[in-house]
Amino acid sequence: MAWLGAFADAVRHRCLFRTPTVLGDMAAATWNEWSLVLFTQWLRTQCSHKTGATLTAATVCQYVSAACAALSRCYGVALLASRLRFDRVMKHIALAAEPRRKRQGIRAAHLRMAAATLAGFTDTRDVNLWATAAVAHVCLLRAGELKHLRHCDAQWATRDGRCCLVLHVLPIKKRKLASRVPIIIPMIGGPACPCAAFRRRLFIIDSGGRGPLGAAANDSRPLFRLGSGRQSRAASTADLRHFAKRIARVSGLPPKEVGGHSFRIGGATDMADYGVVAPTMLKTRGRWGSDIGYIYARDTIAQQFHAANAIYAASGETLESAFADWVQPARR
Predict the structure, then answer these.
(1) E-strand spans in 52-100?
(2) pLDDT tens digits, 27-58
């Protein structure tokens, strides 16, 4: 509580926090919330005693949470009326002054490079994570969308004569309003084929090596989960982030520059590089509600060459030269 004491000395206020008289005392909760907000902003200006650097957003959130918990125990009643709302406010304040790190995407080429090292394992955890990574790349999955995927959201089907995996993805940012988006994943072949990785996962984990299983219509278990029996849990953002760093190490990417969103970035970039850049396709496949998907679809060298070739090869006549009265005079 040293930081809280230093904050009290800095503002020299006798009543930083009010004791809630009854459970649900909104006046005291509002007062305390504002005090914690000011404490959060003050911490953003402080430096670490060990490193001398400004406190990171994670450290700020940790200190504020510790202060809130300690004061709640001291008063014998919750300091805040709605901790969930305050956590969101605190997160935005703490991250506002910290530049967002630009992540690199894990693309299909990186998966193929990593396949020689990571796709030959038999450990059930790695088998599951490899299938998760391959599917996340081709479906442009957010890491947080993993926990909403169930067994009944995946079905095998035949489309245009090709064996396909159909995955119904629930957008995490619109999960209360939006329906699941169906994404067709055809059997592509090769060491990083998502369908092959998913079949292998079903064979080893769900069937115990007895053979491939089909998804039951009422099976609501997490589709990608770690562990077995009652100890199993849905794959998390942290699991996919750590696995992304493993892929980065064996494929030549800087591990510090990849994260849980790297598969989403890589899939969007591969779509753009191959030429599939129709706005409706990118928005639908990525479950975006705006044009922010184009930020994820990073430029590639091939696209730069294509743009330069198009500029140099252009020979069409302009409207200005064809219609003399079409051009309006520029304002000065």
Answers:
(1) none
(2) 777 788 788 888 887 887 888 877 777 787 77
d(CA 132, CA 226): 11
Domains of the chain, by residue range, sit at: 2-96, 108-261
Cβ neighbour number for residue 232 with a 10 Å cutoff = 13
211 has pLDDT over 50:
no
* 102 DSSP 8-state letter: P
Phi/psi for 294 (5° steps) reads -70, -20
Q: How far apart are CA 279 and CA 109, in angstroms?
A: 24
Terminal CA-CA length for the chain: 62
Residues 277-314 have pLDDT tens digits of: 666 788 888 888 777 777 778 877 887 888 888 888 88
Which CATH code fits 108-261?
1.10.443
Indicate the range of 103-117, 181-195, 255-269, 294-308 predicted with least confidence: 294-308
Radius of gyration over every alpha carbon of the chain, rounded to an integer in angstroms: 26
* Tokens describing residue 321: 């030269």
Share of the chain above pLDDT 70, in %: 80
Cα 176 to chain centroid distance, Å, stands at 18
User: What whole-number distance in Å separates Cα of residue 302 and Cα of residue 322?
Assistant: 34
Residue predicted with more confidence, 16 or 139:
139
pLDDT at 50: 76
User: What amino acid is encoded at 276 in this protein?
Assistant: V
CA 136, 140, 143, 145: dihedral to nearest 10 degrees? -100
Q: Is 75 exposed, middle or buried (0-12, 13-18, 19+ CB in 10 A)?
A: middle
Amino acid at 202: L
Entry field: residues in the chain? 332
Residues 6+ apart with CB under 8 A from 256: none
Name the H helices within 97-219.
Answer: 108-118, 124-139, 194-201
